[in-house]
Each structure stands twice: as structure tokens, then as C-alpha cells.
Amino acid sequence: MQIQQLSIFVENKSGRLAEITEVLAAARIDIRAISVADTSDFGILRLIVNKPDEAVAALKKAGLTVSLTNVIAMGIDDVPGAFSKAMRILADIGIDVEYMYAFISRKSGKAYVILRVKDSKKAVNALSSNGIQILTAEEFYGM
């Protein structure tokens, strides 16, 4: 149960994010979650979109460097300690989180977190067997 994340190499210059999001808008791609990590010269734009294959095609056609990565989307109750519980489950089985980011959903009472880990299958099994909701691609893209 993984979803696909786009990673786009972005030159750190004015207007670049506008250009990228305009490509997606023209292709009628809906952004579900977004994260940017940057240095002084470049950044990595991470996106979860409703149609990842179509987004990759549109971005490559526009001359951008883009790749797809499998990530986990987990839903946790929006209460103190819920996120800590999920992180403890992963720590207890030796799973390191490479990076993560959260996003706002239309569904109240839940917080959603995107996780990138080395052993997704092990992480998904541990989280779901401990009551943590793992979203399928269909559930996530349909949000």
C-alpha cells in the first residue's frame, strides 16, 4: 500500500515554482501534498498528485527532471500522542524515516503524513497491525 510521489529538480530562481505548477494546471493535475527542500542553488520539489503518470509526462515534456518514488501515506488521529505512537512503532522495528511531510485534508479529525522509509513493506505491516491507517493510492488520490 504505497503511493507515488514526484520528485522534481528545481533551479532556485524566481518564478520556477510558478512555471512548474502551471504545467500541472494545464494538464489538469491536482496537487494533493507538497514539500520543498532547498539549497542556495537548487531544490527538490516533492509532490503527491492525483494522476502521477500524467504529471510525469507533462513535466518531462516541459523539460524538467522528474522521478517517481514510492512513499507511505498514513492517517493518524489528530490528538496529542498519535504521531508519537506511529514513530515509536517504526523505531521499535528498526525503520528509519528518511523524510516526511504532513498535509491538510478535507477529512476532519485526521492528520495525514507522507513517509519515505527504506523498508516500506515492513513499515506498512507494523503500522497497520498497530491500528495506524495506511492509505491506498485510490484513497489518497481521491481526497
From TrEMBL:
Residues 5-74 form the ACT domain. PROSITE patterns: ACT. InterPro entries: ACT-like_dom_sf, ACT_dom, ACT_dom_pair. PANTHER family: ACETOLACTATE SYNTHASE, SMALL SUBUNIT. This is ACT domain-containing protein. It comes from Caproiciproducens galactitolivorans.
